Amino acid sequence: MNIVVVGAGTGGTKIIKTLSSILDVKVVMVIDRNLNAPGIALAKELGIRYSDSLTAMEKVDPDLIIEATGVTAVSEELTQMYKDKCEIITSKGAKLFMSLVEKNNQTLDRLNYQIEAIKEASAIVQGHLEQINNSIGNVHEISNKLLDIANKSNHHIMESDKILQYVNKIAKQIKILGINANIEAARAGEHGKGFSVVAREVQNLADNSEVNAKEINKILSLLSEEISKISEQLDKLMNYSMIQVEASKEATKAVENLLEKANI
């Protein structure tokens, strides 16, 4: 539909702006005696033909004329010239139309404001999500390091256990030597008393070494159990981190989609 707007004041400018955003409607000309009117400036900006004469619209063959001046003489002249050629909306109809346009513009402004608010909030959320992603990544990295440390500690405990088994074996051998030494001291009678004292001390040392080795082994076993528990919890932490990463990615994607739709 080809439309001519007569009157390029404030009301006419709003009508031009609104009609220009409708796909099936084309403003083909704007007419006003004042070529410095705001509607004429908008027509120039939008590439719409303009004139200061009513007769100029004969060149564009309009389907509809909107009289937006509110001047009775202009309305009467338009009726006389074009009533048999196309539809004419007089100043009263144009006033109603301009009221609807004003309401529409207010609604659009409100929607634009809300879209900007959504975009701003989404940008803030996106920034926080990026921080969360980085934080989760750091937690994941630390968990890996701690798990590696736990595995190495467990390996060291196993190595220590081997050493303790070796120490325990030596202690048993020393204990046997002490028993043999006591037997030989008893056979030597009076001459073996001094040697008997040394043999008993060696036996006592062997007994103490064996007891201490068992205690250390017990502590290492408990420590190994605790490290195993830590490793188990770290595995769970890593799984939770992966879940958080995936959830954060989905949230980021949702925010990006929202921003993309807000920019349409």
Structure notes:
The protein is α/β, with parallel strands linked by helices and 264 residues long. It folds into two domains: 2-89, NAD(P)-binding Rossmann-like Domain (Rossmann fold, 3-Layer(aba) Sandwich); 114-262, Orthogonal Bundle (Helix Hairpins), CATH 1.10.287.950. Helices cover 75% and strands 8% of the residues. The chain is built from five helices and five strands. The protein has helices at residues 10-19, 38-46, 72-82, 91-188, 193-262, and strands at residues 2-6, 26-31, 49-51, 64-67, 87-89. Strands 3-2-1-4-5 form a five-stranded parallel β-sheet, with helices on both faces. The chain is rod-shaped. The model has no long low-confidence stretch (mean pLDDT 79).
What would you say about this model in short?
By secondary structure, the protein is α/β, with parallel strands linked by helices.
Low-pLDDT runs of 5+ residues are: none
Number of structural units classed as domains: 2
- Specify the number of helices: 5
**Strand-residue proportion:** 5-15%
Write the layout of secondary structure elements.
Layout lengths: L1 E5 L3 H10 L6 E6 L6 H9 L2 E3 L12 E4 L4 H11 L4 E3 L1 H98 L4 H70 L2
Parallel strand pairs: 1-2, 1-4, 2-3, 4-5
Helix pairs in contact: 1-2, 1-4, 4-5
Quick tags:
single chain; 264 residues; alpha/beta; Rossmann fold; Helix Hairpins; 2 domains; five-stranded parallel beta sheet; rod-shaped
